[in-house]
Amino acid sequence: MIDYQNIIDRFFPDTENQRLREILITHSKSVAELAVQICRNHPELNADEDFVYGAAMLHDIGIVKCDADGISCYGTEPYICHGTLGAQMLRDMNVDERYARVCERHTGTGLTAESIRKQHLPLPEKDLIPQTIEEKIVCYADKFFSKTHLDRQKTYEGAERSLAKFGEEGVLVFREWHNIFG
Question: What is the pLDDT confidence band of residue 15, given thresholds at 50, 70 and 90?
Fold first, then answer.
């Protein structure tokens, strides 16, 4: 299994923004635990449980470079970029590419090049859609946890409502995943 704690410690040292570190670790553990539960509940998917756990622990590593006061992020980049930033951080460390892909593909239920272009998002104009079963599991599990309410898991309906704010396309993908993972 990847040494995700060492990577977290590198970018979120104990001596710096302790609140952001706590948010990242608490949120990521919640996502990782649900993602592993999905793997165990669905052995027919043949998902790599160790990879899923490590990827879930690292999926939001890029928040350290973003500006989102509400969750103690005091970087300079727009929050929408946290996935692609995290992917680049992992690539710069020569971490297995599979982890980087989870980072860059977990926003919403994924982003198409067309939606990035139409919304003028500050992201590379390419499809950032979960492809592997592991990427889909982490992305799905992530939708049940926010970084502002660390003490609770959203219901399926609550997660769907959160996605609905960004359009019907993501809701349809989420429903499809729920039929597989729920």
Answer: confident
- Contact in structure between 46 and 180 (CB atoms under 8 Å): no
Tokens 């890029």 found at: 62
Q: What is the architecture of the domain spanning 4-181?
A: Orthogonal Bundle (1.10)
> What span, in angstroms and rounded, lies between the C-alpha atoms of 16 and 100?
24
Is the pLDDT at 111 greater than 80? The verdict is yes
Q: Which two tokens stand for residue 143?
A: 């939708």
Q: What are phi and psi of 8, to 5 degrees?
A: -60, -45
Kindly report the backbone phi and psi dihedral angles of residue 53, in degrees, each rounded to the nearest multiple of 5, phi listed first.
-65, -50
CB 148 within 8 A of CB 71: yes
Distance CA 58, CA 64 (A): 12
- Report the C-alpha gap between 59 and 105 in whole angstroms: 9
